[in-house]
Amino acid sequence: MATRRRRTVTTDAPPPAAGRGRKKTLRIDQALLDRARIALGARTETDAVARALEMIVRRDQQVQGIRALAALGPIDATRIDD
User: Fold this and answer.
1) Phi, psi (5° rounding) for residue 25?
2) Looking at residue 17, what DSSP letter applies?
3) pLDDT tens-digit profile of 4-29?
């Protein structure tokens, strides 16, 4: 008989706005996590990790947008509205 693994959903913290939170086991340097939590102004370690991941995703979206704009060619300053 095959055994089934249980999935655990976190209930101690609100899920991120974009989706459901899931319990994960990660090995993270505690000093680095503490520094990130303080730098981000996060109350909890979970919040610090979520904020850091959101920042990485947002930065990637910004880089993609800049690359798309750069592909359009040089900006004509005379066509910019004031």
Assistant:
1) -110, 120
2) T
3) 555 444 445 555 555 678 899 999 99
